[in-house]
Design goal:
Strand content: 15-25%
CATH topology of the largest domain: Alpha-D-Glucose-1,6-Bisphosphate, Chain A, domain 4
Radius of gyration: 33 Å
Order of helices and strands: HHHHHHEEEEEEH
Protein name: DUF3576 domain-containing protein
CATH class of the largest domain: Alpha Beta
CATH architecture of the largest domain: 2-Layer Sandwich
Number of strands: 6
Distance between the termini: 90 Å
Shape: elongated
Largest sheet: 6 strands, antiparallel
């Protein structure tokens, strides 16, 4: 029994020429699946270092830390710039600067939404305000900005909505647009 195990593989090679041919073809196919790391250019440390430096110089803003860096699928010449903000950055920053005194409930730079929590002014504790800002475009235009303004007063222990009209809303939109234009000029 022990001798049978010792010569198991030698019996395999004696079976037939077909088995030897199958084994030979399998080895050739597996060798073809190699990564090519044994090629002379890959063994040279300086060549690998040069490639790394080249790749780093091609990047605009330095390493982005994305898995897809330098990935070119289907021969596309378009270079991936990473995740960019989906709205006008000047309007975004001007909006945040304008309402910076209020606590934020939500800020989504890709969807262009800025929403505050209810804010109670120390000067008027019986009134609270909530602002929602929508940035609708990547261009700096007046129609790329929409502001919703909500005001409530405390009456008999309950918050009651006030109809404030469009003047306050338009004034806030103008303030944001003016700040954005000033940022653009700097």
């Amino acid at each position: 029994m022990l001798q049978h195990k010792k010569y198991f593989l030698s019996g395999f090679f004696r079976k037939s020429p077909k088995d030897l041919l199958s084994l030979f073809l399998s080895i050739i196919l597996l060798t073809g699946c190699s990564t090519g790391m044994n090629m002379p250019g890959f063994m040279d440390a300086e060549t690998g270092n040069d490639r790394y430096k080249e790749r780093m110089q091609k990047r605009d803003g330095g390493p982005t830390g994305k898995v897809q860096d330098s990935l070119n699928i289907f021969g596309s010449d378009v270079e991936d710039k990473g995740a960019l903000i989906g709205v006008n950055s000047l309007l975004w920053r001007a909006s945040l600067d304008t309402i910076s005194f209020m606590p934020l409930a939500e800020a989504d730079p890709f969807g262009g939404l800025i929403m505050t929590e209810w804010y109670i002014s120390p000067n008027n504790p019986k009134q609270r305000t909530k602002i929602t800002i929508y940035i609708l475009d990547t261009r700096l235009r007046a129609d790329a900005l929409r502001v919703s303004l909500f005001v409530q007063n405390m009456i008999n222990g309950e918050w009651v909505n006030l109809d404030i009209g469009n003047d306050s809303r338009l004034k806030l939109e103008d303030t944001i647009l003016t700040k954005a234009r000033q940022m653009k000029q700097k």
